[in-house]
Amino acid sequence: MAEFVDSTVKEIDGRLRELKDEVAKLEAARAALVGGRRGPGRPPGSGASSTPRRRRTGRGPGRPRGRRSGGTRAAQALELVRNKPGITIPQIAESLKIEPNYLYRVMPKLVSDGQVKRDGQGWHPAG
Question: Most CB atoms closer than 10 Å: which of 1, 35, 51, 122?
Answer without folding.
Answer: 122
